[in-house]
Amino acid sequence: MSLRLSDLVKRELADDPAIKGVTADSRKVKPGYLFAALPGSTVDGRKFIPGAIEAGAAAVLAPDDVGGLPVPVVHAGDLRRAYALAAANFWGRQPAVCVAVTGTNGKTSVATFCRQIFAAAGHKSASMGTLGVTISDPCGPDEQITPPGLTTPDAADVAELLATLAEKGVTHLALEASSHGIDQRRLDGVKLAAAGYLNLTQDHLDYHGTMGVYRAAKLRLFETLLPRGGTAVLNADSDQFPAFAAAATEAGQTIISTGKAGEGVRMADRLLTPEGQRLKLIYAGEEYDVRLPLAGGFQADNALVAAGLCIAAGIDPAAVFIALEGLRGAPGRLQRVGTGRTGGEAYVDYAHTPDGLETVLKALRPHTLGKLVAVFGAGGDRDRTKRPIMGEIVARLADVAIITDDNPRSEDPAAIRAQVQDGAPDAQNIGDRREAIRAAVALLNEGDVLVVAGKGHEQGQTIAGVTHPFDDVTETAAALGLEHAHG
Ligand SMILES: CC(=O)N[C@H]1[C@@H](OP(=O)(O)OP(=O)(O)OC[C@H]2O[C@@H](n3ccc(=O)[nH]c3=O)[C@H](O)[C@@H]2O)O[C@H](CO)[C@@H](O)[C@@H]1O[C@H](C)C(=O)N[C@@H](C)C(=O)N[C@H](CCC(=O)O)C(=O)O
Ligand SMILES: Nc1ncnc2c1ncn2[C@@H]1O[C@H](COP(=O)(O)OP(=O)(O)OP(=O)(O)O)[C@@H](O)[C@H]1O
Ligand SMILES: N[C@H](CCC[C@H](N)C(=O)O)C(=O)O
Ligand SMILES: [Mg+2]
Predict the structure, then answer these.
(1) Fewest Cβ atoms closer than 10 Å to its Cβ: which of 82, 279, 414, 429?
(2) For 97-117, what is each residue's pLDDT tens digit?
(3) Which residues take part in binding meso-2,6-diaminopimelate (predicted)?
(4) Are residues 168 and 76 part of one domain?
(5) How far apart are CA 283 and CA 306, in angstroms?
């Protein structure tokens, strides 16, 4: 079957060429492609129309009149949405059941939990997000089909990946909806059965400007992306829960609220155990006693949202709660690395926001008989206003704070560290991350706990536009004198 431009943009067209692909990047255009000329945040895609046509573009999607072109031009007010819908129409197939999750922190954890629960219930499943795309086959090993990249990929990549997953027999997909991704319409072509909301705390103000605009981006998942009749799974313990519940109600969705204040999946009790935690959950009047093999109250919050999404996706609730007992944490999220030569435990975690740091340090405190040591930093070319707040939180909640570099990107690393230090005047300041990790490990004794925060699974340190290989787990294990990190 050959698709015409009119099939993609759903309009009657006099000039209706066959379309062979859809992209917003002129460098990816091949003969017969539809090129979407998106005015971006750094360059104006309209600049690349001549190059795209030279490369063989058969049609152009543009925001306004771009003047006499030799190929048909389709205009759209909401161009990014039109681009996402055209890509979805081009690629066609999607896994039968897609669920999405948003929140400042915890999206990757929830997406990987959903993938595991779906697989435990016998479905070929996948997750898409910060860690890339991973498929779980109930009868075989996991398969990673794309490496880590954007949390929510470009709309054409999303459409192609969904078609690839459906082709591979994946029936259940959980995807991360970043605020950038929702705002830039990267998910507008995805047919969602359910959507989850975790929390809204400070991050990304460089992009959104204010918390109100940031919140509006996340609300759009419920206002626009999740259809009427879909299920909204909402963490009732978040202070922003009322706004998300109101949006879901307004949009005609069923709500499953979760957490201590939840009425859908309610956490009636939580007990710390050496293996993780024991949860008493109430769902539809039934009580479930769940041994969650993960540390940290935040992982219980994430597990409940994942459970709600899987129930909304049609999985038998009893099977969902049993599956929680087999969950593995996402790599680099409160991942235990090992024990120091003179005792103490070291963890790698991905906390890179004020609330993430506060949450992980509070989660580790009950496991710390001695001192709590934190190595952390803040990313360059990202929200600057979060830096001193992150410093203040670590200075308050850890016993030893060591500020180091975390992807300074194009910024001066020492200037970023100084901004973090504004909130943590007494913290040590060691720019070189390897040296900072070694200094922290050297402090460890029996009963102490170290968390190396901010990079989690990342495999590189980006300095002045160059990414140098760097892995917190490997570096921490080496500093501990271990050959391999223990899980
Ligand atoms: C600020 C931001 O989100 N930018 C993303 C956005 O870029 P943009 O639309 O502003 O693009 P631009 O660079 O101004 O270019 C405009 C247009 O010209 C096109 N172009 C450009 C050059 C050329 O030669 N030819 C050409 O056609 C581009 O493909 C684009 O369509 O769309 C691009 C394509 O999808 C993304 O690669 C790019 O991500 C940049 C690299 C990025 O770093 N994004 C981060 C901040 C991000 O999106 N993070 C979120 C959140 C993570 C979290 O939750 O913490 C994520 O989902 O990963
Ligand atoms: N529910 C939660 N509440 C607060 N903090 C959390 C929660 N879940 C995870 N965290 C913290 O945030 C870190 C990142 O978790 P995760 O990768 O699951 O979040 P994310 O939303 O996918 O992040 P990103 O925005 O980079 O994609 C964890 O390592 C932990 O420190
Ligand atoms: N998705 C997040 C990841 C931040 C990870 C941290 N290591 C950093 O570089 O700031 C972002 O792009 O803001
Ligand atoms: Mg993520």
Answers:
(1) 414
(2) 999 999 999 999 999 999 999
(3) 382, 406-409, 454, 458
(4) no
(5) 14
